[in-house]
């Protein structure tokens, strides 16, 4: 009796769920669908090892999308995705559909919060007038010498590693990015002035944050916040997130103290 009652309730819930989304199903119907997907599960059948196979999966989806005219629909359980390969279509959609998917952005916003380009449109649209002047051609041109110098340093570093066999490029790019951000945003031209252990800890924490974020993005069982907060990944994420925030705050605090002793001639 109880089993029958539960079955009826689940059936009614599913019918109501389908009815509520009937417009979505109508619009999705004429779009070509991805091959090799399970009914109801869709792409979720690959989620158990998605982190290891994400690059090959994206390559396969891209090839299939090219064959279907540059557009293809995919289902991940109840989640609906559209793959695009036509640059003109991608440009139009990126300028029109500004809001980011909450499930996909959870792993990013857990670290960035509602800041920068990862903020919801309701917040980002109000703040962009403040941010846009910082990326004006005049300001960007003032950093061209730095960009050129840092890029040359990166090329020299890669030349040293060239011909040594397979190597991990991540630490090199990570160090390059940190040095560039430190100089453009904080005016720190040389990371050698910062304790090597601090820099090493910062880079290691950034790497760990990316790992946890990637794992959560491609592990559907970690999408619900309450499950994620019970996992070891959350504790690992919090540890390294706090470390990054503390190091950043210390650098900013030191820079502010240095500026107090600088004479500013304002015209």
From TrEMBL:
The keyword Metal-binding applies. The lineage of its organism: Eukaryota, Metazoa, Ecdysozoa, Arthropoda, Hexapoda. One of its GO terms (molecular function) is oxidoreductase activity, acting on paired donors, with incorporation or reduction of molecular oxygen. Keywords: Endoplasmic reticulum, Heme, Iron, Membrane, Metal-binding, Microsome, Monooxygenase, Oxidoreductase. It comes from the Eukaryota. Its cofactor is heme. The keyword Disulfide bond does not apply. Coiled coil: none annotated. It is a peripheral membrane protein. It is found in: Endoplasmic reticulum membrane; Microsome membrane. May be involved in the metabolism of insect hormones and in the breakdown of synthetic insecticides. SUPFAM superfamilies: Cytochrome P450 (SSF48264). Its main location: endoplasmic reticulum. Belongs to the cytochrome P450 family. This is Cytochrome P450. Signal peptide: none annotated. GO terms for cellular component: endoplasmic reticulum membrane. It comes from Leptidea sinapis.
